[in-house]
Write a structure and sequence with these properties.
Order of helices and strands: EEEEHHEHHEHEHE
Number of helices: 6
Number of strands: 8
Oligomer: single chain
Shape: globular
Length: 167
């Protein structure tokens, strides 16, 4: 995300960005902030590099309130049969795939719905598995293209895709 202060100099901590100066905020850094993405995992036992679907769940009461009422860990605080709902509310400002402000992508809403629909159809109709489950290093992002859009994986990541029998 590239911004330029238009109304005057912009003070940020001990620095000042001059009027019409360029300020670049790489989304890569924000998208991998362990504090923002470990929303209900205070001990951060689920690092940001590992997919953990529960980070997108919210429960009727907060973890802090559960822990303060005598629960010793999150598994006791949130049993698997408790009511949870999907939410990105705690991630405001931590996920900006379409940039923001004046330079925001005009097709962001269409793109989001298109991505969700495509993924929903794909995961419903196909089973996908890594062929080589031991080569986690290959799935890590190649930072050689940092700052220039989406990052590809470091190596080839072969997968096996099988169509599900939905009958």
């Amino acid at each position: 995300m590239i911004r330029s202060p238009e109304d005057g100099d912009l003070p940020i901590g001990e620095w000042t960005v001059p009027k019409r100066g360029l300020l670049m905020t790489p989304s890569y850094v924000v998208h991998r902030d362990p504090i923002a993405w470990s929303t209900i995992d205070p001990d951060q036992s689920h690092p940001i590099e590992i997919f953990w679907s529960e980070r997108f769940l919210t429960y009727p009461t907060s973890l802090d309130s559960q822990l303060s009422h005598g629960f010793q860990d999150k598994d006791a605080a949130f049993p698997h049969n408790s009511t949870a709902s999907f939410s990105l509310d705690n991630l405001s400002g931590s996920f900006m795939p379409h940039s923001g402000g004046r330079g925001i992508c005009p097709g962001q809403h269409f793109a989001r719905y298109e991505i969700i629909t495509t993924l929903a159809i794909f995961v419903t109709m196909f089973d996908i598995e890594l062929v080589d489950k031991t080569s986690e290093e290959k799935t890590q992002p190649d930072l050689a293209g940092f700052g220039f859009g989406a990052l590809k994986p470091k190596g080839r990541v072969p997968v096996r895709i099988k169509r599900r029998n939905l009958r």
